[in-house]
Amino acid sequence: MALGVDPQGSRPLLVLQETDGRGRVLPIAVGVPEAQAVELERSGARPERPQTHALICDVVEALGHRIDGVRITELREGIYHAELRLDGGVTVSSRLTDAVTLALHLGLPIMVEEEVLVAGASEIAVVDVEDDEELEVVVDESGEPVVDPDEVEAFRKFLDQASPEDFDKPS
Fold it and tell me: Is 2-167 a CATH 1.20.1050.40 domain?
């Protein structure tokens, strides 16, 4: 998972990478406050008072339950829908960014329905990480990623030799 900015620089993008299958990338436009919440959780920062997603986790736990997973279930009219899966088979509808932030907070995988991947994902996306660690996803005017075969090959070689330590969270 990464955060970036759309090519026009007007909206943050949440970029999810498929870990199984074809390695598709799902770029999702999100709001600034939502991107900030995701980044706060990604960074491992623990504010003095709980953020909303941490509060939800605490309430669920106080009621004797736990959140077992999150799933992105639908892309309808350009809006992604998600759900929280609780123990006992209970599901609760959720905004995508809330579900993602909860998954990060709890260390849960983010599952995505196949039809959502088909509708919104790209087979290959080229990302450019600058020295300042900002992420840019390069896409054309239709939202499709611009692919440079040399960059894709270099990235594949990097992934072949990468270890989990290469992806430590920033401090």
Answer: no
